[in-house]
């Protein structure tokens, strides 16, 4: 145990940094999905979060079901899916 109290904000920031640096393979995606993403140069959660829905759907063999898999995996590690107009929360 540390004798120096750690600031809760610093801990939260480190947790966020750790999650952003996770590889796409670490978040529970199917191997095929991970391979599709890596072929497009998407290797980390941070890379994935910088992609739009349209970017992802433009990947070969990447459809609505795969997109849903990605969103669910991101939600499991604390990232919410984007809210689209007309879609219930």
From TrEMBL:
One Pfam entry name: RNA_pol_A_CTD
Residue ranges of every copy of the RNA polymerase alpha subunit C-terminal domain listed in the record: 15-76
This protein's record includes keyword Kinase: no
GO molecular function: DNA binding; DNA-directed RNA polymerase activity
Highest taxon of the lineage: Bacteria
Keywords: DNA-directed RNA polymerase, Nucleotidyltransferase, Transcription, Transferase
Biological process annotations from GO: DNA-templated transcription
EC number: 2.7.7.6
GO cellular component terms attached to this protein's record: DNA-directed RNA polymerase complex
UniProt entry tagged with the keyword Repeat: no
Name this polypeptide is given: DNA-directed RNA polymerase subunit alpha
Lineage of source species: Bacteria, Pseudomonadati, Planctomycetota, Planctomycetia, Pirellulales
Gene that encodes the chain: rpoA_1
């Amino acid at each position: 145990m540390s004798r120096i109290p750690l600031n809760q904000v610093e801990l939260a920031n480190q947790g966020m940094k750790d999650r952003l640096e996770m590889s796409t393979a670490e978040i529970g995606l199917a191997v095929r999905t991970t391979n599709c993403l890596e072929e497009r140069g998407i290797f980390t959660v941070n890379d994935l979060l910088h992609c739009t829905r349209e970017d992802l759907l433009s990947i070969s063999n990447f459809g609505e079901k795969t997109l849903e898999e990605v969103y669910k995996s991101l939600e499991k590690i604390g990232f919410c899916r984007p809210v689209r107009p007309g879609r219930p929360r």
